[in-house]
Amino acid sequence: MEGAVAKRKVLSSGLTVSQKVFVRSRNGNASKIVREHYLRDDIPCFSQACTQCSELYQSDNGTVISAVLSESPSSLQSSNIGRHYVLLDTNVVLGAIDLLESDSVFFDVVIPQTVLNEVRNKSLPIYTRLRALCKSDDKRIAVFHNEFSSSTFVSRRSAETINDYNDRLIRTTASFYSDHLKSTGIKMIYITNDKNNLELALAESLDAMSLEAYIGLLPNSQELLDLLPTLRTDFSRSGTKLKFPDYYSTSRLLGGIKNGTLYQGIINISSYNSLEGSISVSSLPKPLLILGSENLNRSFSGDTVVIEMLPRDKWKKPSNDIVDEETLGSSENADNDDPESVISDRERRLLTQEAVKAQTSGNDDDRVFPTGKVVGISKRSWRSYVGQISARSVDKTQSSNATRSVFVILMDRSLPKVRIRTGRAKDLVGKRIVVSVDSWPANMSHPEGHYVRTLGDVEDKDAEQEALLLEHDVEYRPFSKNVLECLPKEGHDWKVPEDLNNGDPQLAKRKDLRHKLICSIDPPGCVDIDDALHAEKLPNGNFEVGVHIADVSHFVKANTAIDQEGASRGTSVYLVDKRIDMLPMLLGTDLCSLKPYVDRFAFSVLWELDQDANIVNVSFTKSIIKSREAFAYEQAQNRIDDESQKDDLTKGMRYLLALSKKLKQKRMDAGALNLSSPEVKVHMDSETSDPGEVEIKKLLDTNSLVEEFMLLANISVARKIFDAFPQVAMLRRHASPPQANFEQLNEMLRVRKNMAVSLESSKALADSLDRCVDPNDAYFNTLIRIMATRCMMSAEYFASGNYSYNDFRHYGLAVDIYTHFTSPIRRYCDVVAHRQLAAAINYEPLSIIHRDKTKMDLVVKNINKRHRNAQFAGRASIEYYVGQVMKNAESLEEGYVIKVFSNGFVVLVPKFGVESLIKLNTLTQSGAAKFDEENFKLTFTTEAGEEREIAVFDRIKVQVKSVLDEMTSKRKTQLVLV
């Protein structure tokens, strides 16, 4: 409990010092803590119209503080408000951040420090967005440090709750501004959505109103009202028969997690069945299944949820049904989102079928999974979602400006429809729109949200591309002014200093390697060149090999604006037609890029390798290099293969290739996995930027050459930084997969092909994958490797202090320790690894932010998320462009059945790297079929009367074409069984 603030005293400097008294209780022992709290009388109001504060904008050290708020703010004639600023309460920022970011309202805003602190404590993502807004050139937002101003600080009363105290601090700030600005004729409007706080503010004669009331006074109020969060409280209806179960209390959730009766984890909703979710729990051998909307209990895919396990007699197998909202046939009447439809008749039939199947199969079946129900949400994954208004939920008879409820169908089919209120429903039909989710009341069958903005028409290229980035939470806005100011002032004219002895101690530490025959080998058209290599034969018969990595950390210093932006973005994102950079283009494609023929700063790893590619010794140095050539993979391969090329540069590449093959063989012998994924390339028309054709990527020996030496560099650096920083080294691990992950694949292989994969070790898995060969089908082994890849755990970044050394292991690469060091232009992990390596070799000290384990944990958590999102965005981009290619070019292709359900099957088409669901109702009018679960086989009669049998691993002919998804209006590749 915090006590009252004690006496104040005025110091000779003019500062006022107070004492804050805290009583803290730990382990039953109470301790009294007294802290000094300094108050100032020189904090300006930040208004350009204020003459009282003019001398405060020039500090003692000459730093100029900007007066942010306009001298002529917007004026409202309504209610005689006139010219005014607005001061926002915490609840307004938390609930209406989308409105605050809008370019149609809120240009002169005061955010009290108390509000900033409360927002940070309640929602870090919204706090980050608010801080970005405060720095934006498009808004005039002043952060007023009211808790350090002698004019606005008030002591906490003995019986006052912390919330009431914070409210009083904010009201005091509003009162100060009202009095302080009287002479300017500018009013301060205090906006709060807290009913009690609003009443107190009005009682104190403040100009205060609710957010909705304020928006209603604006000229563009109809449009802006759509952006208001849904804060309805009239959800209770008499006669409600069904509702979602209430969540457990916080104390019950915490107690259950602690004593092991409840489980916490991130829920993943199946992409094929919106009624089935799962969470992985480390203490359980199999994931926990959550079946049915009542058990899912308003959870979204990605939420951190608390699960209570159901009794063993309710454990079930994963569903064999394809289920989405279209299948369930839920109501389209958003104004009557009847709680009685929380569980539809279709869902009841499905759940009953699952229960019967579980009983008939017996609970001892190896394929039965533990089941559970969601009893609490620890953390929501809610973000901005993209979708379109369901035309069927729009009443065509209503006037166009009538405010009503409509459903928004999200682009992700695993997510439920969102109910919003808007007065522009008819205008928004056929548009891609962005919505935010506000709440999901227990007696509503769908979540409540609000409209944010329109991206454009459905199928408009720019709208669909922006939708893709938003859906995968990719930051794509231009870099801010603060970030760009961190770049070298010389811009493109920056050059490596010619004189290495110019008095710069850091420059003098660099090793001059410009005489080495260095080259880079990258994909065609690569401009952000991270890495370059060289090799030469030594007099003793060994080889000197160097990997040279762009020295990004020379330009991106820790804890600067550009560093914080890089840490936030985490990675560059590569789409078919564009690249979303982690760092400004000047660095990524120019100053840091290891372009040929120019001097560049690098971080070099130098080995001496013997004839068998064993490491004799290794060293690390900051360097200066000058690449001789920038090769594409095919160019390098052709030069190596051309026997007429006998120059030293080509000889070096041949040494590299020979050594890389030995390195790869050693990895394979150690148990490294050769996994696979569908790799395709979409060719774009150079003039129109339209997609032309799709082809499978060709992998050459030079691809493997580069990969092997990048792996070797990453391993060598990982060992060095872990030795230097055993608690905070930036590393990457890949956990071994649980047996349960491979159960279904092994069962399919056993039944259909009399094969199996072994999980005893990575070596056993690699060897067993090698044996999965069909002599009649050359692609079969690749197919199994693709399916095995999907059974693996995801690799993740981590700070070394979080795991024991045995858990550092990278299962896929079969190495005991690993990191990412070789791509700092496009990955933030690599930037941190560079800084730690520089400190490890005594080049420069390591910043405190990379020596603080708590801060490192936040960094790795974010970059893990950003890395996954970037991968998904890249795949979605390929999927979108393949759909565009197929729009005008249907074709007959070979596909492979990789999954069979009771009402459809999934087919992978290798040529285009796409997979698609073929539903049973598109193959037969009657819908009747026989599903053989044991043999992964579906038998049905086509509309032509022909009996067909489809089983997993079957090679079939399909017609590939592009269609608009009827539900999401998202263009997708559709496969038609031939």
TrEMBL record:
GO cellular component: cytoplasmic exosome (RNase complex); nuclear exosome (RNase complex); nucleolus
Gene Ontology terms for molecular function: 3'-5'-RNA exonuclease activity; RNA endonuclease activity; tRNA binding
Any one of the GO BP annotations: nuclear polyadenylation-dependent CUT catabolic process
Cofactor list: Mg(2+)
Entry keywords, A to Z: Cytoplasm, Endonuclease, Exonuclease, Exosome, Hydrolase, Nuclease, Nucleus, RNA-binding, rRNA processing
Highest taxon of the lineage: Eukaryota
Subcellular location: Cytoplasm; Nucleus, Nucleolus
PROSITE patterns, per the entry: RIBONUCLEASE_II (PS01175)
Principal subcellular localisation of the protein: cytoplasm
Domain PIN positions: 84-199
RNB domain sequence ranges: 510-843
KW Ribosomal protein (keyword) present: no
Pfam family of the protein (one): RNB
UniProt similarity note: Belongs to the RNR ribonuclease family.
Name of the protein in its database record: Ribosomal RNA-processing protein 44
Organism: Kuraishia capsulata CBS 1993
Organismal lineage: Eukaryota, Fungi, Dikarya, Ascomycota, Saccharomycotina
